[in-house]
Design goal:
Helices cover 74% and strands 1% of the residues. The protein contains 17 helices and 2 strands. The two termini are 25 Å apart.
């Protein structure tokens, strides 16, 4: 489960990321609560707009951010982005403490945070593959998710307590300090021990990532499922905050819900770390589990029963996303990994500008329970897409001896295209062959 910890650089990265993630979750919790209760009168629609402004830049800038992640030194790039995020968070805290923050200014900061995150996310995701060897990449991705969700258990709960005790402004200042842990970790990493980055002949073209994904039907299906979940299912700040208000809770109650959600998320991340490799069938199955868990949570009559169902929701969504992330990273040409991960993050986060305003409007007009059911319906659509592709691609077969049992063929993964083959295909000299269900791949 923890085999990636044998690498010094990864150990340093993990510790720095854990501290930074705790601060980030504190800030996310505080921002949602400020918009919902201080800058508006419980307006879930304004909260959806804030989320949309944060998550739109990764989608709009996907071509540029992926190219930057592949073209420049990722460690130095992360130092820059983390420093900018530190300054933005500190500025928000100062404006809140001085009492001059308005909804319009918060919208501007949300957009600025989104622009910086658009460059930070693909570099951070791809940098994991620079820290460990390919055979441990899936494990490293899963442990990253464990760090992220471990921080999710601590950050929102601490944020809720701090908000009640001394106010929201201090939460943003604490987050600014937490960013120093990540910057310090990046400074301690030994560049000589990083995994050499592969470079292909076509590595300088922005559109290569799009072309590569276009030749991989498995990635297209994965991205489609991730987009739907990201757009309609992962609006937890809206779900948890509005449900907390419905149950008569304050900021500490909202923060506790986010932490309880993270319990299931952490278990899912650790379970993913134990698997030998990421499988697309797990991604598909997790979308169905998410739909069921979200549906059940929408009908819970009390705060604590709703909180319990959130653990299952968190388990399902992190199982899906961690496995999808690991699958994309471990089956993608290393020379194009930054651009493909930028596209992945844009698909994941870019769904929010579309879904969050809709979900926020539904929560404001019809109540949070209907909004949660909308997310559950989206997950069911994602499951249908994944299941249809698995059936159409010939991966699901009737069991040889048991009449009513099906088996899933995992022995024929799609071939990972080499940089030379991809460059030739882009140039038009060699057709890129992705093996279908009738032919076996042996790379």
């Amino acid at each position: 489960m923890f085999r990636s910890f044998s690498v010094f650089n990864y150990r340093v990265w993990f510790i720095g990321a854990l501290v930074s993630n705790i601060g980030a979750w504190m800030q996310n919790t505080a921002m949602s609560w400020v918009v919902l209760t201080e800058l508006t009168n419980n307006d879930a629609g304004a909260m959806g707009i804030t989320m949309a402004l944060q998550f739109a830049p990764p989608l709009l800038l996907v071509g540029v951010t992926g190219w930057v992640a592949d073209r420049f030194d990722r460690r130095k790039l992360l130092v820059l982005t983390q420093s900018l995020l530190l300054l933005l968070g500190t500025a928000i805290g100062i404006l809140l403490l001085t009492g001059v923050m308005t909804l319009g200014i918060m919208y501007a900061f949300a957009l600025a945070l989104g622009v910086v995150a658009a460059f930070d996310n693909p570099s951070r995701q791809a940098f994991v593959s620079d820290l460990v060897a390919r055979e441990n990449a899936s494990n490293a991705v899963a442990l990253n998710a464990a760090s992220f969700n471990g921080a999710r258990m601590i950050g929102p709960a601490v944020a809720g307590i701090v908000i009640v005790a001394v106010g929201t402004g201090w939460v943003f200042l604490v987050n600014g300090i937490a960013f120093l842990a990540m910057i310090g970790a990046l400074a301690l990493i030994r560049p000589a021990e990083l995994i050499p980055r592969a470079k292909g002949q076509g590595s300088g073209r922005l559109a290569d990532g799009f072309r590569y994904v276009g030749k991989r039907p498995d990635l297209i299906v994965t991205f489609a499922m991730v987009f739907i979940i990201g757009a309609f299912g992962m609006n937890f700040p809206i779900f948890a905050s509005t449900m907390a208000l419905e149950f008569g809770q304050q900021a500490d109650g909202y923060g506790l819900l986010s932490s309880i959600l993270a319990i299931g998320s952490l278990v899912a991340a650790l379970a993913a770390a134990r698997r030998d490799r990421a499988r697309i069938r797990v991604v598909v199955g997790a979308t169905l589990l998410f739909s069921i868990a979200a549906t059940v949570s929408a009908f819970m009559p009390t705060y604590w029963l709703y909180a319990v169902t959130l653990m299952f929701t968190g388990f399902a969504v992190v199982t899906m996303l961690t496995t999808a992330n690991g699958y994309v990273q471990t089956t993608t040409d290393p020379a194009l990994r930054g651009r493909v991960m930028a596209l992945y993050m844009a698909i994941l986060m870019g769904g929010t500008p579309i879904g969050a305003p809709i979900v926020g409007w539904v929560a404001a007009q019809y109540g949070p329970r209907v909004a949660i059911l909308l997310g559950a319906a989206g997950a069911l659509v994602a499951f249908a897409i994944g299941t249809t592709w698995m059936l159409a691609s010939g991966r699901v077969h009737r069991h040889e001896s048991r009449r009513f049992r099906l088996s899933i063929d995992e022995t024929r993964p799609l071939r990972v295209v080499t940089p030379a083959e991809f460059s030739d295909e882009v140039a038009g000299t060699t057709p890129l062959r992705i093996p279908g269900p009738a032919s076996a791949a042996r790379s």
